[in-house]
Structure formats: C-alpha cells, structure tokens
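Predict the 3D structure for this chain.
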Amino acid sequence: MATPKVERDGRRGGQPDARVESCSGASRTTCPARRRRCSMRRHDDGGIGVQAVVFDLDGTLVDTMTSLPEAYVAAIAELGGPELTVDELVGMWHLGPAPALLAHILGRAVTDDETERLYEHAAAAVESARPFPGVRELLRALRDDGVLLAVYTSATRRIADPMLAGSGLDGYFPVVVTGDQVADPKPAPDGLLHACRLLGVSASETAYVGDSETDLGCARAAGAAPVHARWSASSRSGHHPPAAYRPADVITVLSARRPLCEGSP
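Done. Predicted structure below.
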C-alpha cells in the first residue's frame, strides 16, 4: 500500500475527510445536536467519551528524547553555540520548531545552510525512531472504535514526516500538524485547534496526549481533555493528572471521564 501523502494543510491525501459526515445536510462541526448524541452514545456503549484523540510525537508516540536532543546538541556546538546538556536542550523544546530553537540558542538569525546542518545531524535519530511499546496497540484500538486520530507536534514537517514513516505510524494519522504550520508554539492552542478543524471536531470533543507540561497547557488552552503520557523517561518528573503510565492507560483514563460534549452537565 502506498504511503499516504500529506497535504499542505496537514490533512493526509488518500484518507477520507473526517468533516464530510453530515447531519441533515450540515457538517458535524456545525451540528451540536449530532455531536452531543455521538459523544453520549460512545460513552454509554463503553467508549471513551471523545470523538478524537490528538497525540504529541517526540516522547509520546516515539522514543527519541535522547537521540534527537543529542543530535541537536552536537549541531549547536558545531555552529558555535553553547555547550548544552540533553536536559537543557529538552527544556527548550517549547520555544518552537528547529529553526526558531536554533536561532534562540545561537542568539542570532540562522541561515538555511545552518538549518540544513541541524537536520543532517538529526537524520539518523529521525530514521531510527521507534514507537514506545504498546503505542501501536493503542492506536489500533482507538481506530477500531471509530475514534479520529491526529498528531500535533512542535517538530517541523521535515522532522515529523520521516519520523512517522520510519516508525511505521504514519498510516494511523490522516491529519498531522507541525510546528512550522502555526504562528504561536505550545502551550498556545493554535496547532491543536487547527488539527481539530481538519478532523471536523470541536476541541471539547478531543483529547490531547503529551509528555510535557507544555502539551498539557496546550490542551487546556484549547479546551481539550489533557492526558499526561508518563511512559517515557522525559515525562517522569512531576505529576500532572490525569496520567497514563502506559499507552493502554489512555483508554482507561478517557473512559473514566464524563462525556465531553457541549451542554453536558
């Protein structure tokens, strides 16, 4: 099967548009009654009470939170920047996608050639990225239950697409929104709201799963349900409930929630 192509708006080609389902001729995004019935039906039937789940990428779906930061640290040193530890670099992820992060650390504008050198350092880590144990099973279970899936990551398209393809997860996500598509990085809600629009659901019907405080802040700012992915080493400092200590716990956490729909008491 051919790998789905990603359209510029973040929606993958070759997949059905999640927004075409109608309710008396109106799209699901413009039919609150339909949305309410769908959410309640899922919950009453033992579903998870949301229409969509959006995931962060690094440290949530794939295990890159050592190899990728190490590549960035090496590239930054090569470009004359400060010597950083992996933890220091990871603490700056929230500053934005690779070019913005590099410019901040170097304290100056960066050239295309310098950004390319950063990507060259990162290539091996990106290509070797593998899903955390249990992630595939989680995605399969959600998809089989009819839950819409998407990714919103701070990574650029240049990083995210080969990472998803190399890990074999790209087929699960008809929508992928990257950090270079939005003006304001996490914890601003822009990217998550954009993913919800492409899926055709409201943020109130959506859960966002991520390993960092900026991910959880993004979910809250958007009005989505935050789920703290605690299965990676990068997420083990601090405790931000509701927490999932292994991928399968995401379903348990969301199933315990009340239905996420407008007008719910």
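The two ends are 45 Å apart (CA to CA).
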